[in-house]
Amino acid sequence: MRFRNLILTVAVAAALAGCTNETLDSVNLSSVKNKTEYQLSGKMVSKMRELGMQKTSPILLRIFKEEGTLEVWKANTANRFQLLKSYKICAWSGKLGPKVKEGDRQAPEGFYPLYPRQLNPNSSYYLAINTGYPNTYDKANGRTGTHLMIHGACSSSGCYSMTDEQIIEIFALARDAFKGGQESVQLQAFPFRMTAENMARHRDNPNIDFWKMLKVGYDQFEVTKRPPAVNVCERKYVFNQQSEGQFNATAQCPPMSTPPALQMAMASYDTDFRRDYEKALKKYQGMVWYEPTEAERKAVVADQRKGRELAYAPTGSSLDAGKLLKVSELEKKIAEQKEAEEAKQAALIQKEALEKAAREGKGLPVPQANPLERSVEQAAVQPEPASKSLWGLFSRNEPNASPVAPTAASPAPLAPPQPAANGQQEVPPAQDKPQVAAAPAANAQAQAAEQPAVDQAPIDQPKKRPFWKIWGN
Asked: Looking at the whole model, is its pTM more than 0.70?
């Protein structure tokens, strides 16, 4: 029994040792009296001392969309930055790629300086740090947008949203760094970790050229562990460039050069990258990475919303929702998405039209009649045949054809009925077709004028045979 208890104790200790700082340092917001003056936990301060960091030393923020991660790096006594803590981003909207215009729901990508004035203690989302979008590069390229934040509440429409427990700690780290004299905190926002494999996996993305430009700054930080000096000229980023001229965002870049020490360090790094990139290309040959939509990312983490308020809207990681596909499979999927989006837009337009009609007091739109007159063809009305008499129902010679229209010729006189051999009057046989005398076409009108107004002369009807005599001889 003692041995079993010892095993359980070791297992619990190992589990606790594997927990992240985020779990151990979870903030109890109910005990926070002043969120803007919140003091970092004792465990966080102890970790800083272990890493050779002062509480007020400079920090740097790095964001990776695809991994859904926000990292806080802090300078040690050698003025090199080390990773202090990594946070799981609760929500970011849109897809991989930079923000281009107001309302596109994209979260920014690039290098952004954060100043003390950008800390917002009165945010509607608990606490917030304004990213400063659009920066110099964004403005030079005509990109628009406002109020792009890192904030709490876990709900995003173009921002990077954290939980309230996360943002209060990030806010405190930035506040203490500014108190220590840091003029601006560098925010590096990337679509993903810019490793050789990730760059090869996203090689067909339309933003790849923009990402290659950001990768220069990413690589230099990876090598030096110091925030790169960022400038903009010719509407592009340049990093750690020495120049005696002035940098103008939209003008031609001045003569510039890379410091020799940095150039040597980057040469070895670039050689390793090219080797790994060629290896990754072979791995992904014939395959394309499908970048998931925001809705697809949300579906992966839908269970996280259970038991929480409606505003809590985690969006999940692109790595969890995305996948590698064959080129043909990706083209089919994109076509299906396009068709669904067009149908959605058509339904939205129809809905807006109906709502507008309702607001203006109009009824629902009714299709208008065709203004062009159509010729109406009247069908010839066939006269109904006269009812047959009882004796006529059994007449063998009763014609079945429709009555023939009367003609202008006079009917031939009928012979008077002759008495039969048995002394009874014989019924004359019905004529199948009246005989009409042919007339030349030139005399048709004259003959018609000479005819009486009556269509046909009256015919004496023969006496009907008694019912009991119908079958007699």
From this structure: no
How many residues belong to the chain? Answer: 473
Q: Pick from 181, 165, 200, 154: which is nearest to 27 by CA?
A: 165
> In sequence order, which residues have a C-beta less than 8 Å from that of residue 106 and are 6 or more positions away?
93, 94, 95, 97, 98, 99, 100, 158
Query: What region, left, alpha or beta, does residue 79 occupy, with left being phi > 0 and alpha being psi -120 to 50 degrees?
Result: left
- Under 8 Å between Cβ of 180 and 75: no
Q: What's the maximum distance between 2 C-alpha atoms anywhere in the chain?
A: 149
Quick: pLDDT tens for 75-99: 999 999 999 999 999 999 999 999 9
Share of the chain above pLDDT 70, in %: 71
Tokens of 75: 């300078």
Q: Residue 7 to residues 19, 76, 106, 334: CA-CA distances in angstroms?
A: 19, 39, 50, 53
Type of residue at 425: Q
How far apart are alpha carbons 238 and 118 in whole angstroms?
24
Give the tokens for residue 51.
């890493």
Residue 163: closest CA among 292, 27, 317: 27
How far, in Å, CA of 248 to CA of 255, rounded? 12
* Contact (CB, 8 A) for 254 and 246: yes
Confidence of residue 433 (pLDDT cuts 50, 70, 90): very low
CA nearest 392: which of 333, 441, 465? 465
Do 392 and 464 contact (CB within 8 A), yes or no? no
E strand spans, 104-213: 110-114, 119-120, 128-130, 149-151, 160-161, 185-190
348 CB-near residues (< 8 Å, 6+ apart): none
Q: Active-site positions?
A: 151, 159
Using the structure block, give the residue that is written with the tokens 């750690």. Answer: 240
